[in-house]
Write a structure and sequence with these properties.
By secondary structure, the protein is of the alpha/beta class. The protein is built from 23 helices and 14 strands. The protein folds into two domains: 34-329 and 440-465, Alkaline Phosphatase, subunit A; 334-425, no CATH class. 41% of the residues lie in helices and 13% in strands. The chain binds zinc ion.
């Protein structure tokens, strides 16, 4: 009896949200503006960078394992007001995008060549979304776990020929007077680290910004000033390397904490656009590091909880969750008779004590077989690899390995494959993939993200919401894979043409 009541409540969505630690979902339906045709006053775009569907799926299993509840993102899919679609993120020159070209689609409504940020090969610079919205009176914020000048945040607020021009990107953020900048990458503002030795921190301070360098600075930052928060010199370190490191967490805020403070600051603006990026999911997957990716994806999910709570308080907010491309395409593989070993092996992911990057660093380029075995045993909390396997790995650490599939020919991929025997998660490589990406939207305007859409639609929709009539120039794709015209990407139009 009790069970059937619980099951009814679960189906109706009344019990699960509060019982499973996401109270904003329980009271969501009556507060979320979900009627088509409404215009949001605020847009929060959340990007888990390089999130293959295997990462999305794995994180849900990992969440059930370690938090005793599903991910909030997965649970959102069953909410009646949630809109779900798939997005085409191809670049101008390739069906596989990098983060710069992908973010440029969202950030300028145009396709660019991989590596460029809102910039065409002929030198034409495109006007980025944050500049256009700034001109329209919107406040704008970028929050990330990578360097703040990295490709994804840059795609919303900069225009440069190459993503490597991070020093220039840092200058453009100031020129556009972005209201909130939180992440890693202080080197790009530091006179002693910049190529031109310009003291960009001083220039930001001169322009009225509060300079935030620690989690404590972030907690106490004045809400009436613009913020430049750079909490580490490079990217914010992988969480898997700092699981029990209280000193680190005291100094470096988590993504959810940065998101919460950014929203507290932006809440007073009549209109704002905020990007929240879980930027190191991608970087963990480049390292074939499932434990690293799971920790980063869960941290991203914590930030989703913060954003949904804000949306509950401010119903005229549109929330869009997505990723820019797949990376590594991890998957829990079938192992053992009746695949019975897959589940217990996947549980070993939670016992991983450090990142693959740290393992590689510890092994160095010429370790003994014994040293390799020790690093694996300690990193995995007990997994003993055979001498034969350690010997097979050694040449890859020395960059003398050889594989049949070229993209597998690296130390990280081979460490990832070796770990797969213990964690049940295999990889297709350590690079991006052309997968169409999941997009989940909620709030006023969400209906525009239903079905199969193009990455450029994000830019166009944001300008529509801001009532701005502007389009950047476009170039045709160059790799022979015709991009379906916008009209043909609409199912009704497609069916009409095909009829
Ligand atoms: Zn990447």
């Amino acid at each position: 009896m009790k069970n059937s009541r619980r099951s009814f409540l679960a189906q109706s969505g009344l019990l699960t949200a509060t019982a499973l630690g996401a109270p904003h979902l329980a009271r969501a339906s009556e507060t979320i503006l979900s009627q088509p045709g409404q215009t949001p006053k605020r847009v929060i775009m959340m990007v888990s960078d390089g999130m293959s569907m295997g990462t999305f799926t794995g994180a849900d299993h990992f969440s059930l394992l370690t938090r005793n509840r599903p991910t909030t993102w997965r649970r959102l899919l069953n909410q009646p007001e949630t809109v779900t679609g798939l997005m085409n993120m191809r670049a101008l020159n390739a069906i596989v995008p990098d983060s710069a070209a992908a973010a440029s689609k969202w950030g300028s409504g145009a396709l660019v060549v991989n590596g460029a940020v809102n910039h065409f090969p002929d030198g034409t610079g495109l006007k980025p979304l944050c500049e256009v919205l700034g001109d329209a009176g919107w406040q704008r914020g970028l929050v990330t776990t990578t360097e703040i000048t990295h490709a994804t945040p840059a795609g919303f607020a900069a225009s440069v020929s190459s993503r490597d021009l991070a020093d220039t990107i840092a200058e453009q953020y100031l020129e556009h007077r972005l209201d909130v900048l939180l992440g890693g990458g202080s080197d790009k503002f530091d006179a002693s680290k910049r190529k031109d030795q310009r003291d960009l921190f001083a220039d930001y301070a001169q322009a009225g910004y509060s300079l935030l360098r620690t989690a404590e600075d972030l907690r106490t930052a004045p809400l009436d000033r613009r913020w430049l928060g750079t909490f580490t010199s490079g990217h914010i370190p992988f969480l898997v390397d700092h699981q029990n490191d209280a000193a680190h967490h005291k100094a470096v805020p988590r993504l959810a904490a940065m998101t919460k403070r950014a929203l507290e600051k932006l809440a007073n603006a009549e209109h704002f656009f905020l990007l929240v990026e879980g930027g190191r999911v991608d970087q963990a997957c480049h390292n074939c590091d499932i434990a690293g990716a799971m920790r980063e994806q869960i941290a991203f999910d914590e930030a989703i909880d913060v954003v949904l709570e804000f949306q509950h308080q401010h119903p005229d907010t549109l929330v869009v969750l997505t990723t820019d491309h797949g990376c590594g395409n991890p998957g829990v593989n079938a192992i053992g008779g009746a695949y019975a070993r897959s589940s217990p092996l996947f549980k070993n992911v939670a016992a991983m004590k450090c990142s693959v990057a740290t393992m590689i660093q510890q092994m160095g380029t010429e370790p003994s077989v014994d040293q390799i075995q020790t690093v694996f045993r300690e990193a995995t909390n007990g997994y003993k690899i055979s001498e034969r396997r350690a010997s097979l790995l050694a040449p890859f650490l020395a960059r003398k390995g050889s594989t049949l599939y070229d993209v597998m020919n690296s130390a990280v991929v081979q460490v990832g494959q070796l770990l797969a025997n213990h964690l049940a998660v295999g990889w297709t490589g350590s690079t991006h993939s052309a997968d169409y990406v999941l997009v989940t939207a909620r709030g006023p305007g969400a209906e525009n993200f239903r079905g199969f859409i193009n990455g450029t639609d994000v830019f166009d929709q944001c300008l529509t919401f801001a009532d701005v009539d502007f389009r950047n120039p476009q170039l045709p794709v160059t790799d022979g894979f015709a991009l379906q015209s916008a009209a043909l990407e609409n199912t009704d139009d497609y069916l009409r043409v095909m009829a």
